[in-house]
Design brief:
This is 60S ribosomal protein L32. Keywords: Ribonucleoprotein, Ribosomal protein. By secondary structure, the protein is mostly helical. 29% of the residues lie in helices and 5% in strands. The protein has 7 helices and 2 strands, in the order ααααβαβαα. Helix 5 links the parallel strand 1 and strand 2.
Amino acid sequence: MEPSCKVKGNYEAFESRPASPTSGVSELISQHSPLHFLLFYLLSFSEDRKTAIMAALRPLTRPKIVKKRTKKFIRHQSDRYVKIRSNWRKPRGIDNRVRRRFKGQMLMPNIGYGSNKKTKHMLPSGFKKFLVHNIKELEVLMMSNKSYCAEIAHNVSSKNRKLIVERAAQLAIKVTNPNARLRSEENE
């Protein structure tokens, strides 16, 4: 089987790497890129150390996220009648003052409230979420691990979750919910 790391076709350093993670580190640094060194380092540590390193993963850029409006748009007359829920519905009456945009009335959502294209769907950490169901889908993020983070889908079993979290640590991909379902399974 071929080694997981490939640098200009030179596999000797990885095939003959020392047993302990600290010996021969300077040789690895001089021969390989920082990403390969990080992968080697991650593979040689315990589980709690891996999660600490995964938490330290940072995005390439972290622009300031500006929300033009944080309040929800509420439905016209939802404050007046209990039967009318507050979920937004566009008023369609011929005389409706909200639809006609009279001064002092509720505001309607429109295209101007949209988020900046660069920060749309961005988490406060600076990553964008990508839903993952298996390891094959996780490996799609290998080249874009500085802009996207993985979120394990809710219907993935705890056995497969462990495998996905381990593989994400090897690929240096941040997982938003690495402990979901795993902690509750251990407590039972």
